[in-house]
Specification:
Elements: E1 2-3, E2 8-13, E3 31-36, H1 44-54, H2 70-95, H3 104-118, H4 124-132, H5 139-153
Antiparallel strand pairs: 1-2, 2-3
Length: 154
């Protein structure tokens, strides 16, 4: 089923039948996955602005914290991961439409790392909320993060 201009579509997946398997087995239930192939849609100016807004995140230093300050070290790790996510998002927006290598798998790994760090699944709203602690999140960035989340979590 296609929705809109073909950017978002549902894919049904079903397990292949093994040859020689018994016919009394029920086929697996179809699973629907939401796949978003729409562009990230950040202009060069918006990418530059995002990098400038969140560059202080990468400058946070864990070396200035006490050795036993686990929460402080987690906060620094979270900030660094968020900055790397923003950088990867901006890079993919810059190379959209070209043959350059995309960083979707890297952003997937970043989101998995954020989930481990926080002990729960990290949603687009969680990313936006964490970024907002450091600088206001522009509407265009919120939209790009939400679109990207569908791309990297499927």
């Amino acid at each position: 089923m296609r929705i809109g201009r073909g950017h978002i579509c549902y894919h049904a997946t079903m397990a292949k039948k093994k040859s020689g398997s018994s016919s009394s087995r029920k086929p697996r239930q179809k699973r629907l996955k939401l796949v978003d192939k729409s562009p990230i849609g950040l202009t060069a100016e918006q990418q530059k602005q995002l990098r400038e807004l969140y560059s202080p995140l990468i400058r946070l230093r864990g070396s200035e914290l006490r050795m036993g300050d686990i929460e402080g070290h987690k906060a620094v790790s979270l900030a660094h991961s968020l900055y790397i996510y923003i950088e990867a998002l901006c890079y993919d927006a810059r190379v959209e439409g070209s043959s350059a290598r995309r960083l979707v798998s890297e952003r997937t790994q970043i989101l998995k790392g954020l989930a481990k760090l926080c002990g729960r699944e990290f949603s687009p709203d969680d990313i936006i909320k964490e970024l907002a602690k450091h600088a206001p999140v522009p509407d265009y960035a919120k939209n790009a993060i939400r679109r990207d989340y569908l791309r990297v979590t499927v």
